[in-house]
Specification:
Elements: H1 7-11, E1 28-29, E2 43-44, E3 56-58, E4 78-79, E5 83-88, E6 97-102, E7 108-113, E8 126-128, E9 133-138, E10 147-152, E11 158-163, E12 174-176, E13 184-188, E14 201-206, E15 222-227, E16 238-240, E17 243-247, E18 259-264, E19 274-279, E20 285-286, E21 291-293, E22 296-302, E23 311-317, E24 323-329, E25 337-338, E26 343-348, E27 358-364, E28 369-374, E29 404-408, E30 411-417, E31 424-428, E32 439-443, E33 450-453, E34 456-461, E35 464-468, H2 484-491, H3 507-517, H4 521-527
Helix pairs in contact: 2-3
Length: 531
């Protein structure tokens, strides 16, 4: 049956509108989805307790900031050693803003006004660490065109900006850092009413300094733009080794024939940029980003027809785009979480139209895939009417809520918000949803997509940005890494000596560094002895 008005349709006027281990991945800079540009790398170490009080919740943590700000829990933050970068949405007279929040104190470092979001877009920031900028794509209601901004991460001033020919909805840029002196930012704009023509575009922009021989472009110059001749929404690219992977919605008017397109970020022009182009067929398309992992590309579709298995999890071969398998899934705009052992986690589902919020875990069998468990179906206790209703199943995840995965002493834990009822859940992927201990931790604080950074868990709530855990990072020498060199620097009295950020430099700071460096020592020793 054709859907009526649901969360997705409201966002886009009834039409259309982002992990984590998979072997070696190319270096690249990342933002709100996953922890690398392939959207595949997990974080490591203890998972902060979301059931505990947050270290801070911004803007309540800063009395000098107006408390009336809008927030979309589907949005994610970007994090560096100093700041957390988040986007507030327009609310009343308050415009949309990019905010830089001090990571230790939860106070405002700077903010910059943005164009108001188009179709309630939840586009999130991305860091260009090499050039010290934070990138955000924003629409411009009424103009028909969005802008990709690069702000100075320290100053908050505009370093460069590119006006696009179309709006941007739900998509975030990817920034490479493995192309020498010629790194690029790539953004996919929005086309939700595609009925033929050029459709959405993939826009490749230079971010590095001009070099007459190696990089004849100024920062902010458009190197190439490729028309997709298709619809696109939320199409945050995945990237690895010079190649980009973008999913399309297909014909947005009818919701058919989504495609996956591979492009070369190193190309000099649009004519040489497209590597391969695969039509996956069917009555569905991609409304979110893809994952590049272990020689493959993974994506989840969104089908506006049918029930809770009308959409698909799809795997393609990265080298040529050949479809390896597809398996039934609930509808989603999130990025699949691909684990090193062949499991794939999907957050999907809405409330209504035969669908419910859920997490589903699959096993990649190379040439096929099987469903291992489903958090909603496996825990459903029907009241006799044959309808899956709130209170009858374990509610976790949802179509727009991106999970974050952490490896912690032999356990694989996924944190994600609970669509509809609010709250945050942490689950153990080594267990079944019906097992005792599957639900590791929970919070009633409203939450959506989860971001981990520097041993802290960040979530955008309806009240602001919450930081769980102690926002301490033992990067003494300022190289954005925490390793033995930081302990040596501390003992030499060089660098950021107040590791605990308590105003005192004492032996406890050194102990904090040592504890961090040895956090996985026992597990590493035991793992080496396992058969």
């Amino acid at each position: 049956m054709r859907e009526g008005v649901d969360g997705l349709a409201v966002r886009e006027l009834l039409v259309m509108i982002l992990v984590m281990v998979a072997g070696p991945t190319a270096r690249a800079q990342h933002g709100e989805i996953g922890s690398d540009a392939g959207r595949t790398r997990p974080t490591h170490g203890p998972t902060p307790l979301v059931s505990a009080d947050p270290a801070w919740v911004f803007p309540a943590s800063d009395p000098g900031v107006p408390q009336v700000l809008g927030w979309d829990p589907a949005s994610r933050v970007a994090v560096d050693a100093e700041r957390v970068y988040a986007v507030s949405t327009q609310l009343g007279s308050e415009p949309s803003r990019l905010l830089a929040i001090d990571r230790a104190s939860g106070t405002l470092a700077w903010w910059a006004e943005l164009p108001d979001a188009v179709f309630d877009s939840w586009s999130s920031p991305t860091l260009d660490r090499s050039n010290g900028t934070v990138l955000i794509a924003a629409g411009a209601p009424g103009s028909g065109g969005g802008t990709l901004f690069a702000f100075g991460a320290v100053s908050g001033s505009v370093v460069w900006q590119v006006v696009l020919s179309r709006d941007v909805v739900n998509a975030s840029p990817v920034v490479t850092d493995d192309l020498g002196p010629a790194d690029r930012a790539v953004i996919v704009d929005y086309e939700g009413f595609y009925q033929g023509g050029s459709g959405a575009a993939v826009v490749c922009i230079n971010v590095d300094a001009f070099d007459a021989q190696l990089n004849p472009h100024e920062p902010g110059d458009v190197v190439w733009s490729v028309d997709l001749h298709d619809g696109a929404s939320g199409a945050t690219p995945a990237y690895e080794g010079g190649l980009l992977y973008v999913g399309t919605t297909g014909d947005a008017l009818f919701g058919t024939d989504g495609r996956v397109v591979c492009l070369d970020a190193r190309a000099a022009d649009a004519l040489s940029a497209v590597v391969w182009d695969t039509n996956i067929g069917g009555n569905d398309g991609f409304y979110g980003g893809l994952a590049r992992a272990g020689g493959s590309v993974f994506g989840v579709t969104y089908d506006f027809f049918g029930g809770d298995r009308s959409s698909r999890l799809v795997k393609l071969r990265a080298s040529d785009g050949a479809v390896q398998w597809s398996v039934a899934s609930d509808r989603s705009s999130t990025v699949p979480v691909v684990l090193a052992d062949g499991r794939v986690l999907v957050s999907a589902g809405i409330e209504g139209f035969g669908s419910v919020p859920r997490l589903t875990l699959y096993r990649d069998m190379e040439g096929s895939a099987v469903e291992l468990w489903d958090s909603a179906s496996d825990t459903w206790q029907d009241d006799g009417d044959g309808i899956m209703e709130p209170g009858e199943y374990l509610r976790v995840g949802g179509w727009s809520y991106q999970p974050s995965v952490r490896l912690e002493r032999g356990r694989t834990l996924a944190a994600v918000g609970r669509l509809g009822t609010g709250g945050i859940s942490v689950v153990d992927l080594e267990l079944m949803p019906t097992d005792s201990g599957f639900l590791v931790d929970t919070s009633d604080l409203s939450g959506g997509s989860i971001s981990h950074g520097f041993q802290t868990c960040y979530v955008v709530t309806y009240d602001g940005v919450a930081a769980f855990g102690v926002p301490v990072w033992p990067d003494v020498n300022g190289d954005l890494c925490a390793d033995g060199s930081d302990l040596r620097a501390w003992h030499r009295g060089i660098g950021r000596l107040d590791v605990e950020l308590d105003g005192d430099v004492d032996a406890q700071d050194a102990a904090t560094i040592e504890a961090y460096l040895r956090r996985n020592e026992l597990w590493d020793m035991l793992a080496g002895r396992r058969p």
